[in-house]
Structures are given as C-alpha cells and as structure tokens.
Amino acid sequence: MVPHSLREVLLVALLSNYEGVADYPAAIFVDELLTAYPEAPVILTVRSEDSWAKSMNQTIVHYINNRVIDETTPMAVMARAYSKFCWDDDFDKNGLALFRRHNEHVRLAAKERKFLEYTVGDGWEPLCAFLEAPVPENTPFPGKDDWLEYKKQIHK
C-alpha cells in the first residue's frame, strides 16, 4: 500500500493499529481509504431512509442543534464543521440527499473489490460469510442503535 496524498498518509498513520473502520469520520474519507487500502473488502451498511433520518435526528443532529451552538470545545467545533460540510447546516433539507449520495458513491467506488451491502437486521450469517469468519456461538447480534448509551457518551 502506497499512500498518494497527505490525507492518505495521515489516515494510514492513524489507522495503523486497526483492522477496520466504520461510520463517521471514516465515511467522509471513502476515496482516500479505498486508495490507501486497495485490497480491503468493503461493507456498506444500509437501512431505510426513514430509519436513518430518525436516528440522525435523535443523535447527531439533536446534539449539534441543542448542545454545541455556543460551545468552544473541540467536539463542538468539529460537530459544527461536520454539520456544515455534510448537509450545509440544514439536515431536514439536505440530509437525505447526503445519505443517498454517500451510499451510491460507495457502491460505485467499491464495485471492483470484494463488496457486501449489508442490512444489520440480517444478523451474523451474511457478515461472517463475507468476512470468512465463524458465526459467534451464544452471542446475540447487536442489532440496534443504543440511544441511551450515545446520550451518556456525548454528555460526558
């Protein structure tokens, strides 16, 4: 693997002790990650637009709109930049377009590699088959967002 840009160099350095990435902020760097790790398999988790929008409104958008408006903490500054970058500070107007654009971009960018479009509700089997890993025994699949745990983390 040979990084081609400063972003790729930084991502490779940051991720050197990890086997995978998920969600944001990794989702912002799809192209850089695919270039930096050309052999890496790609899993795109999908769900309904309504479910995604509801989850976003209850977590990230709620946090940005109700907590970080005037804060100067690094997390607050990052959250405001994220809101501006991802949906131009108007999630209701631009959020679903971001969701659609991102999913389509990942599908196209990863079309030449090992790729799984995965719905969390499908459980362990398709995920483990794709990763060529055994299905965990006696381990229930963690199949939902934990809103209460999220709230605890952001209010620390």
Automatic annotation (TrEMBL):
Q: Which residues cross the membrane?
A: none
Which InterPro entries does the UniProt record give?
P-loop_NTPase, Sulfotransfer_4
Q: Which PANTHER family match?
A: P-LOOP CONTAINING NUCLEOSIDE TRIPHOSPHATE HYDROLASE PROTEIN (PTHR36978:SF4), P-LOOP CONTAINING NUCLEOTIDE TRIPHOSPHATE HYDROLASE (PTHR36978)
- Please state what the protein is called: Nad dependent epimerase
Protein source organism: Fusarium denticulatum
